[in-house]
Write a structure and sequence with these properties.
It contains 14 helices and 17 strands. The protein has about 375 residues and is an alpha/beta fold. Strand 2 and strand 3 form a beta hairpin. Helix 8 packs parallel to helix 13 and helix 10 packs parallel to helix 11. The longest helix is centred in the middle third of the chain and has 15 residues.
């Protein structure tokens, strides 16, 4: 059975060494942190450990692949956000941790994905990470779907606990799964249909309606024989699901790539899109209709923007949906692009719960087992 870190009291943690897996894989622009929601969401667990007198080494990654990327340019900014004095530990200097703990209570091990063994779930690396520590804590919910060393293998070598953010994530996503079908709306957008199709299938009998926008809708249009021009589609995924609960846009906005602002058009299915045009937003009729559906809902789960929200000419659909979801008492919002979008619209703090997980959130909602949660005993 999964154990949470608040089951350990101050006397259990004082002067103990804790290996803490966190997720600070955040957008960095011009050497500065561009969005800090994920960092702030894990602060509660860090504060809990520090205030109890524990010495903490945070294990982090940067980027999706093995790389030499480093936290060095932003370590001072990270410390400011966390309200803590933070010392960076180069990956090859792991043996220096005990010496550094004499000077600093909170350490940050540089990008663990500098080591290719991390993504191999390597037991040898797990032993080196665990050496000299008393507890392992995982508060990096967004990485729970990865079968990696610092998420899975390390739990074999230390008493292991989930952090306070993980508890919130699990509690809220469990509610999304268990809540009655009546009045529950699932809103999906973005581009990765391969990660969202399992969620659609799992919610056919769990949600009253499933609203599908963004590039995700393009695959459905194409299956219906509608030409989608230069729009983003994923031909590798078979759309083997049909339901009256699935609602597609009744109109959408297109433009020619490279000349977006000067070539904006409004289409209504089953009209075909020109070869040089791409669908970049839901249309005004769709946005209005979906906003009404959402505002009447008892619960809304939303992952993925409705279009190319980064461009001012194609942000309106996402903004209208974002505002509608913010008015619902029980709302769960997640996905990296979704968080960037709602932050852009000044709505980040207007939702019931904002998940830090993108892929992990989708895997959970699809009903799949997450290796990180399994390693912590969640499914026992």
């Amino acid at each position: 059975m999964i154990k949470y870190i608040n089951e350990l009291k101050k006397e259990d943690l004082e002067n103990k060494k804790v290996l803490l897996r966190v997720d600070f894989d955040i957008p960095i622009i011009d050497g500065k942190i561009a969005e800090d929601h994920r960092i702030k969401a894990q602060k509660e667990t860090i504060d809990y450990l520090i205030n109890a007198g524990a010495r903490v080494l945070m294990v982090v990654h940067l980027g999706h692949e093995i790389s030499d990327a480093s936290f060095s340019p932003i370590v001072e900014e990270l410390g400011t956000i966390l309200g803590q004095t933070l010392t960076l530990v180069p990956r090859l200097e792991l043996a220096s941790v005990n010496f550094l703990f004499e000077k600093c209570q909170l350490l940050l091990l540089d990008n663990i994905r500098q080591d290719s063994l991390e993504i191999q779930n390597d037991d040898g690396l797990a032993v080196r990470l665990a050496n000299g520590f008393d507890y392992y804590v995982n508060d990096a919910f967004a990485t729970m779907h990865r079968n990696h060393t610092s998420i899975v293998a390390v739990t074999k070598h230390l008493p292991s606990y989930a952090g306070l953010l993980v508890r919130k994530e699990v509690d809220n996503l469990e509610q999304a799964m268990r809540a009655p079908m009546e009045g529950k709306i699932l809103v999906l957008g973005g581009a990765k249909i391969s990660t969202k199709m399992p969620v659609i299938k799992n919610f056919i009998e769990r949600a009253e309606k499933i609203l599908i926008g963004g590039a995700l809708a393009n695959n459905f249009f194409k299956t219906q024989g509608i030409k989608v021009g230069a729009s983003v589609v994923d031909d590798a995924v078979a759309l083997d699901v049909k339901s009256e609960n699935i609602i597609l846009p009744r109109d959408f906005i297109t433009a020619e790539k490279g000349s977006e602002s000067s070539s904006v058009k409004l289409y209504k299915p089953p009209a075909n899109v020109g070869e040089a045009e791409a669908i970049l937003d839901i249309g005004p009729e769709t946005a209005e209709e979906w906003a009404e559906i959402i505002e009447r809902a008892k619960m809304v789960i939303w992952n993925g923007p409705m279009g190319y929200f980064e461009h001012k000419d194609f942000e309106e659909g996402t903004e209208i949906i974002a505002e509608a979801v913010s008015k619902v008492e029980r709302s769960i919002v997640g996905g990296g692009d979704t968080i960037v979008a709602v932050d852009k619209f000044g709505l980040l703090d207007k939702y019931g719960f904002v998940s830090t997980g993108g892929g992990a959130m989708l895997e959970f909602l699809a009903g799949n087992k997450l290796p990180g949660l399994e390693a912590l005993g969640y499914y026992k």
